[in-house]
Amino acid sequence: MEDNEAIKVTNLTKRFRIPEHGSPTTLQERFVNPFAKKKMIDFVALKDLSFDVKKGEFFSVIGPNGAGKSTLLKLISGIYIPDGGKIDVNGKLVPFLELGVGFNPDLSAKENVYLNGTILGLTEKEIDESVDDIFDFAELKEFEDLSIKKFSSGMQVRLAFSIAIRVKSDILVLDEVLAVGDGEFQKKCFAYFDDIVGKKTILFVSHGLDSVRKYSDRVLWLKEDKTYEIGEPNDMVDRYSATF
Amino acid sequence: MEDDILKEIYFKRILKKQVMNNNDFDLYKQFVKTTFKMRYKGSILGFFWVLLKPFFMFLILFMIFSRVSGSATGLTSQQYAVYLLSGLIVYTFFNEGMVWGMGSIMERAGLIVKINFRREVVVASSLTMALINFSINLVIVIAVALILNIHITFLGLAYVLLICFTMFLALYGVSFFTSIWLVHVKELQHIMELVLQLLFYASAVFFPVEMIPEKYRFIVYYNPMARFVKAVREALIFGEVTDLKFVILALAVSIVLVILGKIYFNKHIKKVAEHF
Description:
The structure holds two protein chains of two kinds. Chain A contains eight helices and nine strands.
């Protein structure tokens, strides 16, 4: 792996073994019908995929449902392990596959900041230092002690986003979480993105093709038949849009 | 010289991988805190509601069995109360440890498929909850014993803590396996429930061993739970250290179990996210 590379994916293959429809999956079913063979189907999610992401690059992944976008992000985030090939990551990588992971609706907003923050990799001390800034950015200062089940979904997402951007990382993995909340808050989010573009490496998956066009340096287009192309954003998005 | 330095760096890295870093520890604290709050919240009586169930369990068993069991063991009714309580809390500790430890990975499935954090934290925090409950229960039992004029010795208490530590290690080791198995075989939950219920009756929790016909007593003899329960009782009520050889052997076995469990866990946990 070279110095200027943040992520290097070589010949990556991922298969899932899923039970065939009607074949026994639970012990109970196997007891009831002991002679039914357990048939598994190999489902190929990614096949022989190679690419690299340079440091400071905004790299987007597009493609139809089922092309393997989410699987790719989960592999890079270390949630799945590859069946073939390898993934090298250079630097601290933080995945945002979903905002507010681990939020507990019965806890107060402040308690949730600590819970979600540590889940994302912050230490308690780091959260102590930034908890005020988090609430300021989310514009939820006066609701600190309210349990978040009383929050509107917009408020929850604002809080989650404000925590997420506190996590120190070299590489951000983003899955369709761009621009959340109302118009005013969206502006703040975009200001944040404008600020980090070029400073951090970003791997981005989205159906919002406008933001792909606006920010990306390069685009990876995963296709349903497990082939792929890498290229310049406008060209990729134009040709991808032409397929539907 | 250089070799030594390299060896040291390598060793430190290995060590670092095994020991929790700052964030892992904070995460562990957060999980324990959250579970604790969820369990005791809801009302001012929250804490008492949790104690109410075991208290009534105790009351019923005490009313039914105190006369019979008391005369069979030669215990006074005060002693039988502590005898019964200590049996119940040791069994409860084991029960909660087994159930919560086994369910720990499954329970956090939603997190595990989203974030790559140290998975062991989840197992550790679930078992810590069982340990916290046991500690609260133990304090209550000691308080009751003191009220009933039973003399608790320092040695006896230290022995109880050693047994509790041994059980905790055993639970930890077993949970490394069961937490992963449950993801693949969901029925394990029902099987575990059944096994634990049988164990309750096979561990002589509310009746003395002397009440079991002689030809069936081997069940108790070969049942580690029954021997833990018995040792804890004798330590609390009479301040005696009994069955020490067995406890030391159990401790050694538990340590081996933790090591094997950890190896198994580290090997299989990576695949778990695909099977939820």
